[in-house]
Here is the input.
Amino acid sequence: MKLKKITAAALLTATALIMFLIEAQIPALTPVPGIKPGLSNIVTLFALWTLGGWWALAVLLCRVVLGCLLTGQVSAILYSLSGGLPALGLSWLLKGFFPSDRLWVLSVFSAMAHNLGQILCAVAVTQTPSLFFYLPLLLISGIISGAFTGMAAQNICRRL
Amino acid sequence: MKLSKPLISLLAPGILCLALSACGESSESVSFFAMDTCMTVTVTARDADEALALCESRVNELEQRLSVTLEGSELARLNSAGSGTVSDDTARLLSEALALCAETGGCFDISVSPAVAAWGFYTDEYRVPDESELAALRSRIDYRGVHIDGSSVTLGTGQRLDLGGIAKGYASEELRSLLQERGVDSALIVLGGSVEAIGSKPNGESWRIGVQDPNSGGYLGVYRLSDGCMVTSGDYQRSFERDGIRYHHILDPRTAAPAKSDLRSVTVVCDNALRADAYSTALFVMGSRRALDFWRQQGDFELILYTADGRLLLTEGLSEGFSTELPAEVISHEQ
Amino acid sequence: MSNKRWALLFALVILLCAAVTLLLPSGGSTVGIWQRGELLCTIDLAAVTEPYTLRIPYEGGESIVCVEPGSICIQSADCKSQTCVRHGRLRPGGTPIVCLPERIVIRYLRTEGGVDAVTG
Here is the structure.
């Protein structure tokens, strides 16, 4: 039933937005840009797993656009998408290779893709290749946050 | 309850992060150009961006009002007319400035502008005035010729005022009030060589402030500053050379020429940047002996003096927070 | 692959990244060049392998900035005082290189292990 899916997607978008806004309040833990818990990714993964790739994409796009508009950072849309799209894309591709109890692994890979995408975008926009020096650090944070958010998503999927 | 477990899974990481964070404060920094120098303000606050924008516009506003070289400024108009009314803020600043002139026995003098102009420091068209010109200039320099009555100011004959010696200190204090009113308790205000700290760094440590070594690009030492300011006057900051002689920009009001001091740099550490700015200029002019006498009399500030023969002198209140690799003499209050 | 194996794999990747981060020069060598308040560019001096020059044009001339591995300076400028050229190389935690008429400022973006500001 399409209506069920639309409703679910809308609810998920709202949830992702709330997490995004909560996360926006948290100060940058390090001077390195891009290190954050990535809570909204739990929702994107969950959407991918339960509703499928296209719905997850819709949720992601809505969340990014609305979230950036609400926090007044329109320029962040490009930056968010440069991370979110590769993350979703990779998860979508690899989805079939991972059973439901390895969802957290998928999440780690998607987090790494997210970081790589964001750095590529930042380097392209600011024309400073030296930003690549941040990649190892971001990957570490990505793996850790990806693991945690992935386990959260996995837990939810298991129970529902 | 089938829903509660997933809900907790969803919210737990979020709550954890919230618990770990300070409430939405961020550390931001802005650099801009004003008062002929590069200024950098670093603020940790909820609305750091807004606070910084306000700082920048406040400094620009002060520059518009108090600059000697900007034609429409209150000070420029006062100088060209010889008298006039100024805004309350400017009147108050002038009174404070005159008090500092008196306190330092005229070694800091805001009426030194004609001499600054004669040497070419306003336009970078440097020249060396001859003795007769210097004598004429000397007769025009005396802060006691300036009279303030409410907001009406009268200058003595041929007098012109220059607040450059305290402009940065004053701006620094204005920014400090501005930020403290907004509840900011951690900030670093660097206006050229004047450094003012509100509180400590966000991580609780004091700010580490280097004192420039006049001989090299390195430091004489590093001072751990929190809630206070440091202002330095030095003979290396602005100078020009003519016929093999170097002339620096700190004029001695009594000779109308660059001060012949045994000091190369004076750093005043104190809780008020306006006083520190005035003192640093005055004490440079005074030379090490009189400067230390002055310090013994006043007592509520500390000094880092670097002499022309390479000696580093520290007043005793500083020794704890100041670390240096150079041999330093600690000066105590007793003679 | 079992959960444990995956965890081990990721832990290894983390260790590798940590090693790389520690060995590589960090952002403490990043400088920024401003003109009239606008940040023109940031350069990580530690990442420079071959020296190059940057031309910053303005009314009345241009400044030539010389970027070398680990250092940066203004090679020449069309300003009266030439204070910027005389400044020489930018030092970590030292005073910024400033070219007044055009408000060109070159300074480190973050000072690490050194000082937060300099008075003097």
